[in-house]
Amino acid sequence: MKRLILLCVIFSIAITSSICQTTSSTPKVRSEMLVSTAWLAEHLHDSNVVILHVTDDRKDFEKRHIPGARFVPMDRLTYSDGASGTMGMIEKDLPSVDKLQKLFSELGVADGSHVILYATNWFPNAARGYFTLDYLGHGDKTSLLDGGMEQWLNEKRPVESGESKSTHTNFTPHVHPEVLALLEDVKKMTEEKTASGHALIVDSRPHKRYTDGHLTGAVSLYWKDTLVSEKSPLLLPPEKLRQMLTARGIAPGVKIVTYCEVGLQASHGYFLAKYLGYDAAMYDGSIHEWDMINNLPLAKGESKK
Prior knowledge:
This protein is an alpha/beta fold and 305 residues long. Helix content is 36%, strand content 17%.
């Protein structure tokens, strides 16, 4: 009888230990990176909250934006280096740190500001803003508005029109170069096949673009598939997102390196990885630098992983 009790105790300890190990190995969701429309509505007038409306179209902003929001043109978050490929000029992140410091100072982003980013029509534009601020060391004080402008309008929340207003501040960059994967970094991953070990390349483009040609070892996770719908672009619940990553072999402890065409869709993938608690970097040169400029090899069809 004593032996049976001892065996039961040992079995119970083993099960508990296994559960604890599984729980501890699962990255913690960084819920502070995403705010709801209800949260923002309650904090519109907080003195430390800076709302940034990221878009290509100033007229779109002037016509309608969230009260107090400030206009951020996409062409100040990226630059063209003049390199030309079969698809024309290549957009590249990042502008110089000095230019980005000037931009966020003009927008009134202080070192203690809680920045809320949203976009209209295309969710990755807001994520691009997040990646840029994370690169500059402000990511822990930056959040995306879940659902963006679409969800705000779906809920018939107030908007205003006209120019944006901001008070100039002194934004201090603390650059994190490790979040920016460069061409040589990614070449090494594909050549040494380290994507199957401690890091994994994730293609954020539509699956058809992936099968037409992708980086060796990359897995496909189209950014739109992580949203409830295009009309209501809320992120899926964390448990659903984790299932999507698990199905693609993205295990806890693996570093995620995202890419796309020019680093916009990949910004969403980068945000998603960080939100779910993963270590992440983005290959901003993406397919344009890899294929159009350097004519490096691409794998076709489905991943062999």
